[in-house]
Task: structure prediction
Amino acid sequence: MITRQEVALKYYNGKCFVCEKKFGKYFQFHHLYYLESEKKFSDFEKPEQYWEYVSKKILDDPQRFLLLCRICHSRIDRKRGGLSRMKKDKVVRLFLATMRTEK
Result:
């Protein structure tokens, strides 16, 4: 099975789309949109089971996902603020990621 790091490097340049931090432990693959029958993280008991499922989706259509660090991912999901502390170019990339995400 392909690792998260391999996918991050192959399809996403190994960096968070928003802040451009290099790939690390807490990085996440953000769905820009979900397909109707697609499962979510909460549908699985273990993170490894979810990765086995979602990695196939990413490999099939990598442009449907973004690689994000945990902080930027939580900002897109409206769980954290702090935009005033971010550099302008990072706010722009955060905005682009949010606008590309279907709710």
In short: The longest strand covers residues 28-31.
